[in-house]
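We treat protein structure as text, and this decision shapes the records that our systems exchange. Because each token names a local backbone shape, the row as a whole describes the fold. For reference, a complete record is included directly beneath this paragraph.
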Amino acid sequence: MKRCYDDCRFMRLSGKIIPLFFLVLIFNLLQVGAAPIAEGCDKFLGNISTAGPPSNFANYWNQVTLENNGKWENVEPNRDQMNWGPTKAAYKFCEDNKMLFRHHTFLWNEQYPKSWFDRLSAAEKKAEVEELIKEFGKLNFRDTVMIDVVNECREKSPTWKDALGGAGETGYDWIVWAFERCREHIPRAKLMLNEYYCEYSLEYVTEYLKIVKVLKEKNLIDGIGIQTHDGETKKGYEMGTLKQCLDSLATAGLPLYSTELDLAGSDQEQLDWFKNIFPIIWEHPAIKGVTLWGWTDSWLLHISNPKDARLISDNGKERPALKWLKEYVPQHKQITRTDYAINFALSPRPAFMTCSPAGNYRILLDPSAGNGSLQLFDLRGRCIVAKRVDNISGPSAFIIPESGMPRSPFVARVTDKNGTHVQREIPVR
């Protein structure tokens, strides 16, 4: 009788346990197969790691940056003993999961191997910096690599920058030298600067653009990084200058990247900050990627006045801001560019260019242009569009399909009836 009772009890329990088992199994399978939040978007949404990311990283993010283990003091704490292990592990994860890898960073005054480097002569310092870059190049990473060549090059430029050329003729010769060495030893990588205070200060943006201009004229830079850490980004939002700063940086005609975004607060505060700030960054047409600076941990938890910018709490649950990101980003996969405009300077206003919601270029000509022409050139000087402008009595629009334009910056030139022309480089979008 007891055995019959035990059998019946087992079957009743089995009826509860087996369905529960399959529910857990199905949930785990769904987690394993989950796609990154920005899957199918025209820009990436990444995060940081210490080495090879955990297995569930790809359920959320599709770009990796090492938070600290790619910095020089951690790569080479002892002279000529380099440890690229974490870097190679992170890159392999990216390659296996078809993600972008961003190396952070070669030159920064905060985290370099001071214990042995500061004792060297100027010539030795220069040789050691080049060796660092050259050894990274020997890792033979493919085209999925972006590099922050210099981090915080204004406020925290290296005290030893004179060993690399100092200000020199350009005002930034030491930066030029570093980018030249990267082009030489890592020719397939996309090279970037990374800076802060440009989230709220147009004055700092102006100074930053001076450096970018020098590098761009020498074809040394491929992207502009703006850190977007908690304090500076909130300040830019509250001052109303965050978008102005992005607009100003975009005039350089290079892709922009939000490289270290974190927003701290209680669950509700963090959610509100993300709802207010993230769309300004994500929907800006020049922004080509956003890297969040932590999800299961945050450096802001370890400062003297701790703040919580994590996206997953101690109990492993997603915080409301992360849940919101998972809803918002897939709804904004392709960003419209209706606010993108470039003004030409002929008197009073012969032309300006915008982008229609469909993504085509829409060029408006003012009557002051009179009989003249509109021409678009690639950066090699080849004419790709030419239109005659005759007898304009009012503002006239010309639509140029985006599909026929190059995937690189180009030059628009408007010539008026007197043969005077104005031209402007249009950044790639």
